[in-house]
Amino acid sequence: MAAPAQPKKIVAPTVSQINAEFVTQLACKYWAPHIKKKSPFDIKVIEDIYEKEIVKSRFAIRKIMLLEFSQYLENYLWMNYSPEVSSKAYLMSICCMVNEKFRENVPAWETFKKKPDHFPFFFKCILKAALAETDGEFSLHEQTVLLLFLDHCFNSLARLELELKKTPKLKKFWNLIKKNDEKMDPEAREQAYQERRFLSQLIQKFICVLKSVPLSEPVTMDKVHYCERFIELMIDLEALLPTRRWFNTILDDSHLLVHCYLSNLVHREEDGHLFSQLLDMLKFYTGFEINDQTGNALTENEMTTIHYDRITSLQRAAFAHFPELYDFALSNVAEVDTRGSLVKLFGPLSSNTLHQVASYLCLLPTLPKTEDTTFDKEFLLELLVSRHERRISQIQQLNQMPLYPTEKIIWDENIVPTEYYSGEGCLALPKLNLQFLTLHDYLLRNFNLFRLESTYEIRQDIEDSVSRMKPWQSEYGGVVFGGWARMAQPIVAFTVVEVAKPNIGENWPTRVRADVTINLNVRDHIKDEWEGLRKHDVCFLITVRPTKPYGTKFDRRRPFIEQVGLVYVRGCEIQGMLDDKGRVIEDGPEPRPNLRGESRTFRVFLDPNQYQQDMTNTIQNGAEDVYETFNIIMRRKPKENNFKAVLETIRNLMNTDCVVPAWLHDIILGYGDPSSAHYSKMPNQIATLDFNDTFLSIEHLKASFPGLNVKVTVDDPALQIPPFRITFPVRSGKGKKRKDVDGEDEDSEEAKTLIVEPHVIPNRGPYPYNQPKRNTIQFTHTQIEAIRAGMQPGLTMVVGPPGTGKTDVAVQIISNIYHNFPEQRTLIVTHSNQALNQLFEKIMALDIDERHLLRLGHGEEELETEKDFSRYGRVNYVLARRIELLEEVKRLQKSLGVPGDASYTCETAGYFFLYQVMSRWEEYISKVKNKGNTSPDVTEVSTFFPFHEYFANAPQPIFKGRSYEEDMEIAEGCFRHIKKIFTQLEEFRASELLRSGLDRSKYLLVKEAKIIAMTCTHAALKRHDLVKLGFKYDNILMEEAAQILEIETFIPLLLQNPQDGFSRLKRWIMIGDHHQLPPVIKNMAFQKYSNMEQSLFTRFVRIGVPTVDLDAQGRARASLCNLYNWRYKKLGNLPHVQLLPEFSTANAGLLYDFQLINVEDFQGVGESEPNPYFYQNLGEAEYVVALFMYMCLLGYPADKISILTTYNGQKHLIRDIINRRCGNNPLIGRPNKVTTVDRFQGQQNDYILLSLVRTRAVGHLRDVRRLVVAMSRARLGLYIFARVSLFQNCFELTPAFSQLTARPLHLHIIPTEPFPTCRKNGERPSHEVQVIKNMPQMANFVYNMYMHLIQTTHHYHQTFLQLPPAMVEEGEEVQSQETEMETEEEGMPPQADMPCVTDASVSHELVASQPEAIPGQTEATFGRAGTGSSPEVTSAVSEVTAAAAGSDAVPTEAGTQQDATSAPETK
Fold first, then answer.
1. CA distance 76 to 33
2. Cα of 760 vs its chain's centroid, Å
3. How much is the pTM?
4. Can you tell me the distance from the alpha carbon of 147 to that of 143, in angstroms, rounded to the nearest whole number?
């Protein structure tokens, strides 16, 4: 197998290179945004740049990158474009800039939207240029650029509304077009004809270029790239319904596929490989199973009918006009519809006869009798055969496809590009656009992309593990392993032990099993990992045949396959490990048997489809048996290894009848009215809803519905208290009736009136825990609209910017649905376990019975509660609760004096309630209820009450005796309490009948739980099991919806079987923020080219589905919010952001609440890149850590500070520096987290220190979504370290960086101001401000500050206490800590003259962990603690405590020990 050439990475130019470029000099003169006096527009500048910089460099990406980054398009090209100055260089320059923006994945059309006047003229010029002769004014390379531009234009059309539903209308439209043409003047008519014929002419031009490619002689790559880009454009036109309707006819008429398959380019093995793959994709879409006019998916039967119609029409033509084809005409279809039989029957015919057959079928124009055909016989034969051959159905192809990738796919750069993918070329990959043909198409594209993204990760794992094992060729020609790998082991023996018979109608085995033996002569913990492989874990079997001799070094920069001699890769799934007797050890609660020796055998399932293909290849082509060659088995980390289960889920979905609710179907495919699923347009809109505890008061309610009249059903203000039931005006969707003027006024008045009915929640019992938990959040009017929309049926989309209370809204929606529709079940889906746990913790704080909550998956361990909400946790809860309730029944029985054992089981308790409790209650009611006109006696309510003894343990007195109504309500509340006991026992009765924990947990899931929560990954993995169980739900709420992959958002809609052919789903609530980071896609090609990072939430927003945009944040200071609120429609601040002291107080020791700090090269180095995309910047890392240490020394709590960066490399570097400088120092400790911006999404902290790392190119921070996340994590302070000259020029980042650069770019500190300060934010400080110019100065300053602190402490220690540490009693130490705590509570920082004493062991820790010297500093000025300092200082350090160093927020000893030992977060 040929190793693919290693692609080159595009190296971004440095800032110094940028400044030295001719382009930069021109930009500074003509269009740079920071230049105030610019030279006037000159068309010659554009001509010169195009010829000298772009064409001369053969469209080098580096040059185009520079131009695009300098804002050439925004500030010069489009701003000055007009028909008068339009030229070839002008057009091409604009196209290059737009294409570059798409390559960089940044918004491309914003500039054109601001000034759209000349776009129509510009676009006509592009169309004209695309049809120009290749040897004319525009070269082939230039025309490839134009094709790419056209493809981008097409894929950016947000909605193509021309959706004609019925075919008969087409003729009508055609006639209309003809009539309009007749009215046009000749010039306009010619222009219209040109536009209509554009695609047809473009196809003819492409065919000419394609035919000019020779079979074996050298060919220019310009021609190959042009052909590839053209096919890409054709695929995109075919893959969308509005265009394929019209385009299919043109494609059929031009016979494009036939020309392509017969071309020389297809037969050129290297140059034509990608072209062939693209061609297969085009063929797939041209024959897609869909009715182009109605848009309905075609069934298997309908496809068969179409195929039979084609063959029979060909047979009729043959029978009537071609005697030589009688045999064909009279054969049955199945006999003659294969390619082989068609070629055999039509091959002997002459070219003229073939042409005549094609013309009878209207495939070619009629051939005059006297003339010979101009077409090749090969073309004519292929035309007839390809049209009439039998096609395997798409679902059949899918079912025969192996799920595991093999070596052919894993290292195919066209399908799975490397991490160096630049975005230049096209790829044979599906794209996730805005619209899809059918649900099958939607699932298939997602299936393929998910499979390939997993393949990319598998390739990385294989390359890592196999290269660590160092396979070399032994002296005797075998394989010897010179290294070892944790995740891979050499195979000792491999045997296929079972090949089961195929199912009827299939040609692949139902099951293939094999035994793999390995020798685990490794460390114990690695041995445990291998022995811990569970059922369904995926492993890979690898064959290597190295050619390199023993001792050859492995070079990661060279192609991997040829170095290790990799031949085969096959996937397998673990069934289990075998015991001594050869039986599979089952997973279960029983302890595993102890196996002797180090040899272990695993039973594995092989992929039956792959096995069948391999065996067929061995038998038919004489290839070697792959399954006798394996010599390595590789496992993967469990969290990254669930791809097969997800792929199986998608494939199962495609094999079942996907029933999506009718109100969602068109929206998911991207067609129809995007607002059709909004609650206001749903036919089953609910008029009256109980908002339960949503509103805190009637004033809150009125403020929540601005513009509407609120009419309360009771006038007494004392009774206008929550909860409220609200009746909304519901407009029917039918036609409006004509009314007079008065009627219209009444109607509009009625449409704006809400009827509010306060109601009292029935008394639940006399115990304090009977009182319902209440919401305490005062929701804003947009949050209320989101809650209202979520309670109504339909699709609700809530856009929640940072800090706007998305989770609180979600929880309130869940609570309100639970109370309004107690019979309905709600499914909660989130992206991460952390978000699910946050949601669950808030749900538990509301009035929801915990027996109705269930949490599926492995994240429930992280819930910050003693309660276990997992399936088995809930089973245990039910069993324990059952015992508690039966004890209560026993107490009740005793109180009533009833003999017997009513509390034996739930069943006996039920009888006891029916015959003993109910009879007493009914008797009681008959005595105390109002009879006739006599006024009721209050005392009777208490006197006749039969359960006094039972409620003796409740707060007394139970009855207040104030009024009959009040006491009756209390009595009924008591009975409700009793009745609830027996209702719950009736529900728990199933747990008595079901004996096993598994059965009980299934019952809970299917019957008992009302709110079921899981992650999207769990839903994808377990869909099959849930459907099999008969899982049902009515509502779905998705949190973090913008972070979930498209397919992982879709699968939760289908976790249940349809009822009578319809989905029972009533509500779908999605809460997310598409302005923050999208789903994580590791491979840049799938992310950029295939748009795989687009979530379903983002796609819905793009196609225009209505959203509720939350518009008030309560997380950050208003000044910090301004750094990102420009990205949202209207994002303001909640009142507390201005009012609370923490937001109005300044950040102690720092002049500004946010600052951008410029960091220049340190020792001549800016960013570095030890591995691909593993960026580091030592200068920034040291500066960030120095500021962190400074803040901690002032008294900031370390856990209130987080350090973020935009790259993993920098994260690891900062962690290393913290470990060396201060990690184990109790005075300083570790920050709350050191992680990447992407990982920190959804979290927050008071102070954020952010390192942007890059000094050469902006990198992925150009994605504004990443910028929004980075800017919105801080509540009180944000300090950003970056190369300002690089980032301030970036167009996309301008709104944030213009605010950041308005402040000084050097760090301004106030070293004498302790934490916390009384200074108000924005006030000038009374202390002296010091300006830090660079990182070494800051590091030096922090070191001196630390040493001064130690010396001062030592001095006061000697002066006041005169006690050596060894003489301090334990009691004195405790008292000193208490004194310190009291000082903190009073809000007065303990100054340096208030020392205290503690254990000397901490002091030694201080000595050991003083700040190290920064590289490059002299030992004299900035030495290592304890080496560059005097003996007196060192002795002082040994007698100091953590608390004596300075301010009040330094942790106490217990806290510091914890900080010192807490490990940094690892990825």
1. 10
2. 43
3. 0.82
4. 6
Pairwise pLDDT comparison (365 vs 1357), residue with the higher score: 365
Cα–Cα distance for residue pair 1314/1148, rounded to 1 Å? 6
3-state SS string for 181-243: HHHCCHHHHHHHHHHHCHHHHHHHHHHHHHHCCCCCCCCCHHHHHHHHHHHHHHHHHHCCHHH
For residue 564, pLDDT beyond 50: yes
For range 970-981, the mean pLDDT: 92
Q: Which two tokens stand for residue 630?
A: 């394996």
Most confidently predicted of 195-204, 1090-1099, 1289-1298: 1090-1099
- What is the per-residue pLDDT across 902-932, written as a single tens digit (0 to 9) for each? 888 989 999 999 999 999 999 888 888 866 5
In angstroms, the CA 602 to CA 903 distance is 51
| CB burial string 78-94: b at 16+ within 10 A, e below | bebbeeeebeebbbbbb
For tokens 């010029």, what's the residue? 125
What is the C-alpha to C-alpha distance for residues 208 and 268, in angstroms, rounded to an integer?
18
Do the strands 1274-1282 and 1154-1158 form a parallel or antiparallel pair, or are they unpaired? parallel
Q: At 642, is the secondary structure helix, strand, or coil?
A: coil
Q: Looking at the predicted structure, is the pLDDT value of residue 1398 above 70?
A: no
Lowest mean pLDDT among 475-484, 947-956, 1000-1009: 1000-1009
CB 466 within 8 Å of CB 566: yes
Strands 853-855 and 1011-1015: parallel
User: Which residues lie across from 632 on neighbouring strands?
Assistant: 490, 542
* Cβ within 8 Å of residue 1323, ≥6 positions away: 1146
Q: Are 1230 and 1198 in contact (CB under 8 A)?
A: yes
3-state per-residue secondary structure call for 1380-1397: HHHHHHCCCCCCCCCCCC
Q: Decide if 1131 contacts 1121 (C-beta within 8 A).
A: yes
Calpha distance 598→596 (Å, rounded): 7
User: pLDDT tens-digit profile of 790-828?
Assistant: 999 999 999 999 999 999 999 999 999 999 999 999 999
3-state secondary structure 810-878: HHHHHHHHHHHCCCCCEEEEECCHHHHHHHHHHHCCCCCCHHHEEECCCHHHHCCCCCCCCHHHHHHHH
What backbone torsions phi and psi does residue 873 show, to the nearest 5 degrees? Answer: -60, -40
Q: Looking at residue 250, what is its pLDDT?
A: 85
Flag whether pLDDT at 1389 surpasses 60. Answer: no
Structure tokens at 34: 């920071």
Phi/psi of residue 1294, each to 5°? Answer: -50, -45
Model confidence at 734: pLDDT above 60:
no
What is the per-residue pLDDT for 172?
58
Round the CA-based radius of gyration of the chain to a whole number and report it. Answer: 37
SS (H, E, C) 289-350: CECCCCCCECCHHHHHHHHHHHHHHHHHHHHHHCHHHHHHHHCCHHHHCCHHHHHHHHCCCC
End-to-end CA, the chain? 36
What does each C-alpha distance from 644 to 399, 406, 640, 981 come to in angstroms? 14, 14, 11, 46
Query: What is the predicted pLDDT for the residue at 414?
Result: 80
How high does pLDDT run on average in the chain?
83
Token digits of residue 414:
């066209």
- Residue 242: how many CA atoms within 13 Å on its side-chain side? 15
At 864 the pLDDT is 52
CA distances from 346 to 318, 325, 387, 584 (A): 11, 8, 13, 58
**Hey, is 433 helix, strand or coil?**
coil
Instruction: Kindly state the greatest CA–CA separation across the chain.
Output: 125
- Rounded Cα distance between 231 and 279, Å, is 7
Give the C-alpha separation, 830 to 1017, whole Å.
9
Work out the pLDDT band at 589, boundaries 50, 70, 90: low
Give CA–CA dist 307/302, Å, rounded: 9
Please report the pLDDT score of residue 618 as a whole number.
Answer: 93
